[in-house]
What does this fold into?
Amino acid sequence: MNQQIVPAARPAAPRPIATPAEAQQVIGHLSDVMDALLGVIEQETKLVRAGRLSQVTQLERKKTDLARLYLADTARLQASGPYLAKTLPAVLAEWPSRSVVSRRRRPTGPRDGTASRIPDTPTRWR
It folds into this structure.
């Protein structure tokens, strides 16, 4: 049994952004994708907390597709970093404030480790 392992083809390099209008379009699309991905994650969290795990699997495809779009858009923005810094510095300065991390709701409750992060979790699992 002499099988050769064929390496996977490398994905094509992302196409750099060429115009300010294209940059605005990619940034707008990325923002929409981030909002949609956050919505799916919040929906998934609600289903898990409600114990409806079979319904969570129905979100897998949508979440995967959104993650692919997110990665593609961020790769294009990263590949175009020097161009964007030169042509749209104000947009780039604003961008970190629009990240998913800054958009998500902040957890509430004590942070001293006395309370479970998941309601109704038995004490032994906290």
